[in-house]
Amino acid sequence: MDKNSIRTKWESLDGHRVRLRVVLPASVRSQDAPTSPPLLLIHGLAGSADAWEPMLRRLQACALDRPVYGVDLPGFGHSQGPPYALGMTELADWLARLLDLLGIARAHVAGISMGCQVALALAHRYPKRVGALVLVGPTLGGRAVPLWRYILGMALNSPREPWFYKALAVRMFFQMGPLRYAATVREMMSDDTLARAAQVAAPTLVVRGSADGLVPEASVRRLTVALPNGAFAAILGAGHVVQYHRAQDLARLVQAHCWGDAEPEVGQALWRRPDIPGKR
Questions:
Q1: CATH number of 5-268
Q2: What integer best gives the mean pLDDT of the chain?
Q3: pTM exceeds 0.85, yes or no
């Protein structure tokens, strides 16, 4: 079987260049279309599609029959953006226009950290455009978790992340720039994520690395309870950027939740769906 290929794709949206990292199917079926929705990956604060590279490589090795798109949001990574920072709703609207540009009517969506807030905004505003959701290490805005806790969490989490991710994180931060970073933090913290989540009907898998120092487990469970169709999975031993700790395990969870292509490895205790008080 031929291996899927990972390519860099450039588009133009709202008068700005947009960069995507794309896993293309190894072969095209006779109908000249994938059998199920593609996957859209949304990075976090001061990130880019490069933050998903370990996941892209794992999904490439799976020889999927549908594409996977990792996008640099406007003003992040290599994508150009307006001179001001966009809020979570504005980023969701931008993604909807990107899906139009790519000719994608409906996609499964996975986000990490702040990207989860954007993913939830997209599913809330455009429910017919989103299939399944996977939220990895989700931040929840300032109403659920105060800014000081995120700052403390960053300090606690940093020693737990691989050195090669730290080097990437520094590069992505300077690609974004400190002014846009600070303005985006304000937008992120003003987002009422839990209230939005309560109105998202998409089947949603919330994932947290058990060693994540940035996102408290209590806030992740609150989010799972708020989601009408939420489930929770923990990847043992992983930090905040799960894909740099356990990319294969995260890829299996995404495949299982979105496409039913894989089964989580229960015997290795990498998958948990605990009873969540208040969840019905």
A1: 3.40.50.1820
A2: 89
A3: yes
